[in-house]
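Worked example 2:
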Amino acid sequence: MIIGEEIELKIEKIADSGDGIARHDGLVIFVENSCPEDILRVKITGVNKKWANAKIVEVLQPSQYRTDPFCPMQKVCGACQLQFIDYNYQLKIKKQIVEDAIHKIGGLDVEVKDVIPSPQIKSYRHKVQYPISQTKVSKRILAGYYKPKSHEVVNIKYCPIQPKICDEIIDFIRNRAFDFGISGFNEKKHSGDLRHVVLRVSKFTGEVLVVLVVNATKSFDRLNDFAKFIYDSFKEVCGVCVNFNSKKTNVILGTKTECIEGNGFIKEKVINKTFKIGASSFFQINPMTAENIFGFVKNYIEKNFENPIVMDAYAGISTFGIIVSDAAKKVVSVEENSEAVELAKETVAANNVKNVEIHKMDTQVFFENEKRKFDIVILDPPRKGCTKETLESVLRITKGKVIYVSCNPATLARDLKYLSEKGAKVEFVQPFDMFCHTVHVESVAIVNIL
């Protein structure tokens, strides 16, 4: 097989990358923008000993699961890989991705339940992070998502997966930044002012927190004037913050944030609790699916425990801990981000919660020094999952169950394998659709510590 060769093939399944998988003469072929059961003519674009990449030349027979994407930018924008596939079938694909990880990476014979769908599949994304760039000649500001497998910004003026107000604010920033001498970021030269715009929208109040991520170490007058202009121009905007990130990194937010106008947070209601979410606080992008997850965890605890002592690790603004506090004797919450900890403390006070103990500390450091035993440990780590040291500590301090919340099936499977090898038993995995129209999937695993 050579680059440029055209062949016919049938797509078998979707990989966790979002590409379709087919086989030809014993070689695995990855095909972008393809759907299971598609019969295609494709052109080979890359080859090695074990696999090849290809792009579609012609859809000879479309899959029964193909549908028209509701966004005209779907093919050029890297945000919604699966939007051309029927939503109910997207859920089956995500279940298969989780099953493949659990069975192949984890080597575990564990039930993976059907994916619980998102209550809303349009306008669901309530956290938006747009990279900003600028054209060379006209100096127009570009704001949008990256093209697939690139750092080229697609200038997006309408995105149906986020609230309409986000389009309006982004377009306003794109068109008015020049009036204040604010330039877009040039990643190659590491020059320009505005690197990203981050928006957080409250489902509860409809308010928006605007965060301008700038290539600087401190604020400056024209930036402050622009922030005030944004704040004054939208009744929905409750605050405008500036985040400083002058490092050569792909990390979006720097460590320092200043609130220039209004409040540095939005309020969100989950089940019966109200939370403050700041510029750098971790909170799920889909508040409706988030509520499903929090409700699932709380209901599981209520059905299986009576007045348990709960550890909420990697707690963020302590959402899990505060939500399950009604079903617990005591909750111990651990988080290292200062902003999140302060907001968690304010949330505890505002909701009159008396049984949540909050610690600002690295989770593993806390575990190493913790002498208490917990009936339940809730783990909600970043995508990279947990270290072996953390998992060893979890085994030591848990006398009941671990509830592991994960946004990465591969690292979840790896960590569940480690826990199982140490004698724990995984009861089941429940996936949730947090990121509609993408291959990403959130999962909750229930682990019995024997």
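The mean pLDDT is 94. Residues 87-105 form the longest helix (19 residues).
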